[in-house]
């Protein structure tokens, strides 16, 4: 067996980068062959070149930068609201079992309610303005996050808590100065994951009753069967997701250097 | 009056899912005099850690009571410093802040915290490592920090639950000398749980042997080796005599414990 494919054996950083880029290269190559080679009609799939041209036109003529800004703002507003509620609640649920017993069943139930199914209701309640879009993201993220934070805090090593008690810590000290710092790196990681999901909800929210935003642009492009614009819009979401992901990772490494390699 | 009185303390862990409850400790009484260094020696599963955890207040006894300086123990507190077998330093704090933890919980001014922490870190030989994080330290250094952290609170008693159990043999012997040196200097009352016979004899003024499950005190042997003790005491005939006797006592219990497991 090739030594490269030994289970769990790390790969050299340079090779790692090359392999990561190769996947993108292959993807674009396959896309190029399918479109330029005439295997797929332009009506169904625009070529990479046409997509790029469509993208440039979007920025130049259709104010796409503003759409992006609107969408990014919606995601972060809804996500920030969800995090502001879910993180403290999750910590309380993880730390105090009666609180967990009270909320857990309901949150587990609510977690399975699809956020997109709320769109018609939310339009009825909040209109088609910003609040409605933000609420979709909020509903989609908050319950998932509560459960994740609860599990993280519940899983903190009990011997750390015991050590704190023998050092004279009281209940509040244990929650604020043991459970909270111990859980922080993992909570940050959970936020990173849920932010990724928030992006899928915002587009769904923007497909209905929106006048701006990336999702709205994609629906607009569908009317003109402009696959180039549609693909470009989807790509931009991927790029923004990749950037926020990298930022989150960098921030995590910066804020919690002690948790490295755990 | 004794420093610590353990009076008819017993512990039964409730059975789970229709298994029979486990009797960890039959009613046990033990008096510990001020400035005593007691080692509790026994095979694994003899309830010696349970007894120590009851003294620490981390477990509640099924019956009986523990008195520290005449006052009943009702929960964990900074008057009984504890060092655990597992590494329980807070990974997000530096070595210095770990030692400051209890002092901070008590609300001491920062300058005073630092002065005390640095004094105890010097005592355990960790000068120069104040700003390291636990992950950067070896196991022995982590346990030395844990010892400094417990001592910094100036507890009435020091409780140690196989603190050197995870260390290699050579490091363990150095740690024993370090702890014994600290005890010889300020004679803090110590209760030390171990299954290592040499360790038990070398540091103790009394070795309490516990029998296999259910745990009970089998014998209580004063160790009359002169102080200060150096590592060389381990090769004296007196030491060998203690070792021979304790080996016999423990062997019987270990065989009992092993046959019970079958």
Brief synopsis:
The complex is a heterodimer of chains A (262) and B (262). Chain A has 262 residues and is mostly helical. Chain A is 77% helix and 0% strand.
Helix content of chain A: over 70%
How does the helix and strand content of chain B classify structurally?
A: alpha/beta
CATH class category of the largest domain in chain B = Alpha Beta
The CATH fourth-level homologous superfamily of chain A = MetI-like
Describe what you observe in this structure.
The complex is a heterodimer of chains A (262) and B (262). Chain A is mainly α and 262 residues long. Chain A has one domain (59-255): MetI-like fold. In chain A, 77% of the residues lie in helices and 0% in strands. Chain A is globular and about 70 Å long. Chain A starts with 12 loop residues before the first helix and ends in a 7-residue tail after the last helix. In chain A, 35% of the residues are buried. The mean pLDDT of chain A is 92. With 262 residues, chain B is α/β, with parallel strands linked by helices. Chain B has two domains: 1-16 and 27-79 and 155-223, P-loop containing nucleotide triphosphate hydrolases (Rossmann fold), CATH 3.40.50; 88-154, no CATH class. Chain B is built from seven helices and ten strands. Chain B has a six-stranded mixed beta sheet, sandwiched between helices. In chain B, strands 2-1-4-5 form a four-stranded antiparallel beta sheet, with helices on one face. The mean pLDDT of chain B is 92. At the A-B interface, helix 7 and helix 8 of A face strand 6, helix 2 and helix 4 of B. Chain B: Keywords: ATP-binding, Nucleotide-binding, Plasmid, Transport.
